[in-house]
Amino acid sequence: MSFTDADLIARVLAHEDHHAFGELVRRYQSPMRAFLARMARGDSHLADDLAQETFLKAWRKLNTFRGDARFSTWLFGIAFNEFRSAVRARKEIATDELADPPPEPQTAATDSNSRLRLDLTEALKRLNSHERAAILLCCQNGLSHEEAAQVLGCPLGTVKTNILRGKENLKRQLSL
Amino acid sequence: MNTPEDPIDAQLREENNYVEDGGFNARVINALPRRQRAWLRPVILLGAIAIGSVLAIRWLPWGNLPALDLSASLSFDSQLSQLWMPWMVVILVVASLVWGLVAALQWED
Questions:
Q1: What's the CA gap between A45 and B73, in Å, rounded?
Q2: What pLDDT shows up at residue B81?
Q3: Which of A29, A42, A68, B16 is most exposed by smallest CB count within 10 Å?
Q4: B101 by DSSP, 3-state: which?
Q5: What pLDDT, in 10s, does the model give residues A122-146?
Q6: Which of B50, B31, B93, B13 lies closest to A22, judged by CA?
Q7: Chain A contact set for B19 (CB, 8 A)
Q8: What is residue B97's three-state secondary structure?
């Protein structure tokens, strides 16, 4: 028998049921860790630390989950906030993240006949964190623009703009 | 007619591989705070009240309390503290015990 997220959440809230929470972690660990790894530009150790903190925070704050959004959307919101806190806390990442995205490599920008193609992973790293987050949430994890705006704490128009700009940037880098 | 899918969307979905658990779930569960024992705090409170009650019965000067004379106490003479102080101690102790008892019985985790 498969429990819904709401069933599991109710069990956690009523009985502090570790098994029920473990099931929620099992369901959502992959998208959270993948999202955070992309946001951390491939640093899987940092991503896993942030993902763990995300789930621990979810455990502590589960009674504030009102159920008017999907549980995954709520989790992405916590994960993104964790990422932002890490960016602020870690100077070495902050310098990197808060600066403008690095310029595209000369080979990709100037040599139109070059066979060199940045793969998507590398291309995503070259987006700024807002564009990267919007694209990952909407295009990879299937969130609506409204849900992404909720997760990122920004207006709907900003999300749409970031997706548009990010995709243009990716297409340019991938020569699509 | 279906519109052709954005190549970026298609690539992103293709690259969205499942991340194997690799012990992650266990690490999260082990890091969760231990389950609170809901009964523990009221039991401690009731225990403290029981001990406090025994000490109060044993040590408070129940037999030597001065008789209350309101007219004398309102005169603010030098005997005021001597008259009221034992009563104040008794009232304070009893009020504390009653408050603790109510708090323990009303405890909600």
A1: 74
A2: 66
A3: A68
A4: helix
A5: 899 999 999 999 999 999 999 999 9
A6: B31
A7: 29-30, 33-34, 37
A8: helix
State how far the Cα of A25 lies from the Cα of B19, in Å rounded to an integer: 12
Collect all residues of chain A within an 8 Å Cβ-Cβ radius of residue B38: none
The span from the CA of A132 to the CA of A152, in Å, is: 11
Quick one: which of A22, A32, A72 has its CA closest to B27?
A22
| Cβ proximity of A151 and A73 under 8 Å | yes
In total, chain A counts a number of residues equal to 176
Place of tokens 């779930």: B25
Counted across chains A and B, CB pairs separated by less than 8 A come out at 69
Question: Is the Cβ of B6 closer than 8 Å to some Cβ of chain A?
Answer: yes
Q: How far apart are CA A21 and CA A51, in angstroms?
A: 14
pLDDT digits (tens, 9 = 90+) for B30-83: 999 876 666 777 788 888 888 888 888 887 777 777 776 666 666 655 566 667
pLDDT category at A33 given cuts 50, 70, 90 is very high
B16 backbone dihedrals φ, ψ, rounded to 5°: -80, 70
What is the rounded CA–CA span in Å between residue B73 and residue B64?
Answer: 18
Model pLDDT, residue A158:
96
Measured between CA atoms, the residue of chain A closest to residue B9 is A139
Which amino acid is present at B100?
G
* Contact (CB<8Å) A25/B7: no
ipTM of the modeled complex: 0.80
> How far is CA A162 from each of CA A155, A174, B67, rounded to the nearest angstrom?
11, 18, 82
Interchain CB contact of B31 with A (< 8 Å): yes
3-state secondary structure of A95: helix
